Amino acid sequence: MITRLRSFLTIRVLNGGVANSLSSHLRVISCQRISSMSTKPKVFITRRVPESGPTLLKTQCEVAQWNKDDPIPRNELLSSVKGVDALFCLLTEKIDGELLDAAGTSLKVVGTMSVGYDHVDLQACAERGVKVGFTPNVLTNAVAELTVALLLATSRRLKEAIRAVENGLWGTWKPMWLCGPGLEGSTVGIVGFGRIGMAVARCLKPFAVNCMLYTDFAERPAEAKEIGAEFRSLDEVLAASDFVLACVALTPDTKEMFNKDLFKKMKKTSVFINTSRGGVVQQDDLYQALVSGEIGAAGLDVTTPEPLPTDSPLLTLDNCVALPHIASATHNSRGAMSELTARNILSALNSQPMPSEIKAS
Ligand SMILES: NC(=O)c1ccc[n+]([C@@H]2O[C@H](COP(=O)([O-])OP(=O)(O)OC[C@H]3O[C@@H](n4cnc5c(N)ncnc54)[C@H](O)[C@@H]3O)[C@@H](O)[C@H]2O)c1
C-alpha cells in the first residue's frame, strides 16, 4: 500500500520540514502533489481546519493542505492550486480571476468555510464554470450568541470592569461606578434582517427589550411577527434605537455604510455593534463618533484590517470593545462549517446539487 502510494504521490512539505515519514504525511497531510496517474479528484485546503471536513474529503479525494493556523502566502497558494479540481478556502483567501486562472481548467468548485463571501469574485467563478459553496445556517446561532455577548460586554462596560479588577482600581462598591445602558425597556435596531439578524433578535427576546426594530431591502412579515420585530426605514431605526446591530452582508452597497452621516443619525447614547464585516464601517468616522460623543459605545468583532493593529486609535478608547473575529468560534459551529464545506465540494465534484451553493446574481 505504502509503496503504491509512494509512486502515486509526490510529496512536498510546506510545513517547515516536519513529518518526514510517509505515514505521518498520510496522517497530517501538509501538502501533496497528486500524480497524473491518480483518478481521484484533487482538493487543496488552504488552512488547518476542523478534521470533519478533511476526513470526509479524503474518502473520495486526494487531499493536499496548508496545515498551519496562519494563512498561506499568496504565491504559495497560486502554485498550490495548479491543477486541482476543488479548493477548500477561508475568508482570508481572495478568490479572483488570477487565482482561478492559476488553478486552471480542472477547477470545478470553490468551497468557502464561511457564510460571508465578499472575498469571492462570483462573476469570475461563473465565467469559468466554477461552482461556489458556502456555509450558511450552521454558524447562525453561534454568531447570534456572540453578538449578544459583545453587546452586553460593550454596554455593561466589561472591558473597563475587568481591567479595574486586574489593575487594582476596584476600591469599594460605588453606586455610580461603571454604569451603562441595560437592555430592559430599550429599543434594539437590527440592520440586515437575514439569518443572523433574526437569530440575534430571537436571542434578545428574554432580555425584556421594549421594541425590536429591523430594516432590510424588504419586510419579512412572517418572521417579524413570530419574533415581535417591526420594520422601519434605516433612518427610523437609527434614530429610535438604543442599540444598533450591523448584521448585513458586505456588498458594494453596504461598504462603509456606517459612516459619519449614519452615526449622526443615531442617539448620542447608542451602542453600535458590528459582527458582520469590518468593511461595512468607515472606521475613522467611527473613531470620531466615539471620541466626540456622537454615539455612546461600539463593540466590534470585525475590523479593517484584520488583525486590528495594536496601535489602532480604537483600542485607546474605553467605549470601544474589539474582539478578534470570533463570532462563529464554537467547537460545534466550526466543525459543522468544515463538514459543510466538504459536502459542498463533494456534491459539486459528483455533479449533485450542492447543499449550499452561492449563485452569481
Ligand atoms: N463575525 C463573524 O465571524 C461572522 C460570522 C458569520 C457571518 N458574518 C457576517 O454576517 C453576514 C450576514 O450573514 P447571514 O447568514 O445573516 O446572511 P444573510 O444573507 O441571511 O443576511 C444578510 C441580510 O442583509 C441584508 N442586506 C444586504 N444589504 C443590505 C442593505 N444595504 N440594507 C439593509 N439590509 C441589507 C440582506 O437582504 C439580508 O437579509 C455575512 O455576510 C457575514 O459577512 C460574520
From TrEMBL:
Keywords: Oxidoreductase. The keyword Oxidoreductase applies. Residues 148-327 form the D-isomer specific 2-hydroxyacid dehydrogenase NAD-binding domain. Residues 43-358 form the D-isomer specific 2-hydroxyacid dehydrogenase catalytic domain. This is Glyoxylate reductase/hydroxypyruvate reductase. PROSITE patterns: D_2_HYDROXYACID_DH_1. It comes from Littorina saxatilis. Belongs to the D-isomer specific 2-hydroxyacid dehydrogenase family. GO terms for cellular component: cytosol. The keyword ATP-binding does not apply. GO terms for molecular function: glyoxylate reductase (NADPH) activity; hydroxypyruvate reductase (NADH) activity; NAD binding. It comes from the Eukaryota.
